Amino acid sequence: MPHSQTNKITISIDTMGGDQGVNITIPGAARTLEKHPNIHFLLFGDESYIRPVLSRYPNLKSNSEVIHTPHSISNTEKPSVALRKGRESSMRLAINAVSDGRADCIVSAGNTGALMAMAKMVLKCLPDIRRPAIASVLPTHDGEIVMLDLGANLSCDSEVLVQFALLGAVYAKVVGGKETPTIGLLNIGSEDIKGHEELKSAAAILERVSFSGKYHGFIEGDDIPMGTTDVVVTDGFTGNIALKMAEGVANLSALYTKEAFKSSIFAMMGALLAKRAFSRMKAKIDPRFYNGGMFLGLDGVCVKSHGGTDAIGFANALEVAYNLIENEFNEKVAQELKELMNQESFFASDIEGV
Amino acid sequence: MPHSQTNKITISIDTMGGDQGVNITIPGAARTLEKHPNIHFLLFGDESYIRPVLSRYPNLKSNSEVIHTPHSISNTEKPSVALRKGRESSMRLAINAVSDGRADCIVSAGNTGALMAMAKMVLKCLPDIRRPAIASVLPTHDGEIVMLDLGANLSCDSEVLVQFALLGAVYAKVVGGKETPTIGLLNIGSEDIKGHEELKSAAAILERVSFSGKYHGFIEGDDIPMGTTDVVVTDGFTGNIALKMAEGVANLSALYTKEAFKSSIFAMMGALLAKRAFSRMKAKIDPRFYNGGMFLGLDGVCVKSHGGTDAIGFANALEVAYNLIENEFNEKVAQELKELMNQESFFASDIEGV
What we know:
By secondary structure, chain A is α/β, with parallel strands linked by helices.
């Protein structure tokens, strides 16, 4: 029974997704249940894999239901093929549970493209939302921010960008706890013609309308790690590349630090002395605590975990889904969107590219 | 007299550009002259600023010529305004020196947009090159790579992307010393439709034609810091945002390391012991040694220094320009391009968006 009718939250899990499947997803669920005893889990997947792991977690066992299917979606499966041939897959059945009202949300560590394609088809978008976006919380110098789109849409017209700004603002407010979140539109600053037409047009709309967020203006790439704004809005192509490049640079920095500490006997002694300080720093930016790509804009909560994470990381993705339900994110988005659409001139003729 | 007729290389400098103008550009030139005594400098700018600094560098003084102008382009000047009103500016006169044949190349730490606009107008593109790109050498886990475009073109059709691939490949070969440089087209991998039409079409051309580089395929954001390919090709919007985000993350990592070393008495002792190891690491990725954005594709060498760099960084930008001239980059591009254009089906009908 969904959240709205009880104080239970039911999370549907595609247990087969990710590099290690049930060995990560089941221990992750057990961990989340310790923190939130009001969760009930629907565990979709091959029960011959699920049951042996589940038997190690008696509390989870008594707060979950195993729904067996021998089929799963591989990481290399094309989304279009997954849509056609994956109707009995653990991923698809787990999504169906949300559209059927048996679960409040679905979490998977599987194939991103397939998950997005299936979730879009089964759950559909919220009323008046044109496209879903992949959003993620990121650590910055100035606290946590939310960035979207991270790969669901190659290009976005101005209205879609405005809707993403609204999704991000509502998230930063209702889940992130920020009173009036600031919104930045990602752009470049070095040229006379500053940015695409759709960016200029989105900026014009955001300056005019009123909603949960406050439009800050255009920001540049280095504003993201500085935390200049609470919400960063961009198209999925740029967002995906920028995020992956940032992750790569962060990993490289960590590697260089490790190499420096190993490069001499003095540095090694220094490493021993500084060990606790560096552990604290690492914990602060541990990617596992930022795991969970939210598919915002869908009429149902769907969260994608990194495929290569561990149980702690998967538990964080579950937590992300839990928070979206607990804070009634989708209900608040629907309400804000309705108000926004009623504001004069939202669909004015200066919206380009629609 | 230009390089082709003597063994001297003449570098034209806009001495007024950058946050600190002559206090950086003149000492930077002096530093480069020590390394390359065959350079002659043309120093454009306000002589009341230039002369006092220049008098401290007698060797530079005797190997340079001061060309006085009281006008300069501010960092906030719009490129279109700079084009119209900046005809007597140090930046414009320094560029003119290249088109007049008085200098081999021009280096400025000034307004990027204005420099690109003026350089494009005055120098024009190499024959058959449709658009110039901003390119930069970047440090990666697997050695140095070259990435372009970093902000000259908001969007690029497939032919322009192929030309950028060629520019990058020739650079990696003749300046970077790589026998057969590998080329990656920056894309995202999570969706069924992997990338824009122009990327698919550019990939099809790069798979077919033969030139200095070897086409590797699509790469993702994290491939850049890993150094997966020697050349990274992308449009200027994506490239600019990805690079700035990467710079921001690198700065943030450095800041976190600093904070960790200061966070306890043990960590501070550790810092003392590891100091030399970290200095070596920092030297390896010192942004000053990667300073110098090359405007590739122009019929004349133009290099943009970061405005906020110091004399060491500005000297590196001069070195970048020197290497392009010394290795006859433009001559080799022109030759390769001619061969490429002669290859059957380069302008086949499957080139989209041209």
